[in-house]
Amino acid sequence: MAASEGVSGELPISGGVLRAVIVPGEGRNQVRSVRFSGPFQVASPAALSGLQDALAGKTIDEAPGVIEDYFRDHPGAITGAVPGEFLTVLTLAFMKVRMASSSAPDPNAWKKELR
Q1: Which pLDDT band holds residue 114 (cuts at 50, 70, 90)?
Q2: What residues contact residue 104 under an 8 Å CB cut-off, 6+ apart?
Q3: DSSP state, 56?
Q4: In contact, 19 and 9? CB cutoff 8 Å
C-alpha cells in the first residue's frame, strides 16, 4: 500500500454514517493523516481540522487519549458524534490498513480448504 493512499472506515451512527479516511504513516501503527466526515456539526472549520491535526503523526495506540483530550479541551466544538464513535471509525479504517499489510494467512482461505 502506498503511503499516499487513503483507507476508509465507516460507522453507522445516529443521523447517518461517520467516515474516517486515513493515510498510514511510515511507522508501525502510525496515522499520517485522517479526515472525518459524517452527520456531525462543527462550531467552526477549525474545530474539525483541530481534531484531525491532533491525530496526525500519532499511533493508533495514542488515538484514544488524543480524542478524549480534544473533546475535553474543546467542549461543544464538535456535536452529533461522541468521542467513542470517532475512535471506533478510526480503528475500523486502521484495521483495513493492518489487514492489507499483514503477512498472516487469510482465515477465509482456511475455511475454503476445510470444505
Answers
A1: low
A2: none
A3: T
A4: yes
